[in-house]
Amino acid sequence: MIQSFWNSVRLPKKEAMFQLNRNGMTHTISYLFILLALLFMPDMIYSVLYLDSSLTEVSRGQYLVQMFVFYPLFIIFLILIGVSVLAGVCLLMRKAMGRKLTYQQLWKMTAYASTLPLILSVLLKTLAVPDGVSALLFFTVFFYMMYQMIAIYPKTPTKRSS
């Protein structure tokens, strides 16, 4: 996992990209889950520490179960949907650039390319930067990295007419 993080930070370098593409899909999903869990950990800790004291013990218990059981499941759901949608957009980008890549490769590239933009978004959140600015920076950095990574792959051969 640490090697995956290091290679994600080094993107869009060719060597890092090809190393990450060798990882299996289970490894990629686990990496994203751990990354997002670590990035959202301060919010979870803050929520537990400053839990409304007027809640009853039952309400407090329900809240903690929701936070520690359903929140991670929700993160996994968001990972799968978010990365799949972004990979779909990158599939259109690949088609426009005429490159030879499969959706599975783009999905993994999308997952790892989101590392730096996600870290940047969390840092901007702690600095109280407006969400719109943070989202714009996320997508700008992400699509720039994806463009650079897709451009590394060879173009699809054109059909010659006889």
Q: How would you portray this structure in words?
A:
The chain is mostly helical and 162 residues long. Helix content is 79%, strand content 0%. It contains 7 helices and no strands. The protein has helices spanning 2-10, 14-21, 25-49, 57-97, 103-113, 115-126, 131-152. Helix 5 (103-113) crosses helix 7 and helix 6 packs antiparallel against helix 7 (131-152). The longest helix is centred in the middle third of the chain and has 41 residues, at 57-97. The relative contact order is 0.14. The model has no long low-confidence stretch (mean pLDDT 85).
Number of helices: 7
Tell me the series of helices and strands, N- to C-terminal: HHHHHHH
- Return the average pLDDT rounded to an integer: 85
The whole-angstrom Rg is: 19 Å
Tell me about the biggest sheet? none
Task: Please give the alpha-carbon distance between the first and last residues.
Answer: 51 Å
Instruction: Name the overall outline.
Output: elongated
Helix content range of the residues, please? over 70%
Q: Give the helix/strand class.
A: mainly alpha
Q: Provide the β-strand percentage band.
A: under 5%
Secondary structure tally: strands: 0
Low-confidence segments: none
Features:
162 residues, elongated, mainly alpha
A few lines on this structure:
By secondary structure, the chain is mostly helical. 79% of the residues lie in helices and 0% in strands.
Secondary-structure map:
Blueprint: H1 2-10, H2 14-21, H3 25-49, H4 57-97, H5 103-113, H6 115-126, H7 131-152
Helix pairs in contact: 1-2, 3-4, 3-6, 4-5, 4-7, 5-7, 6-7
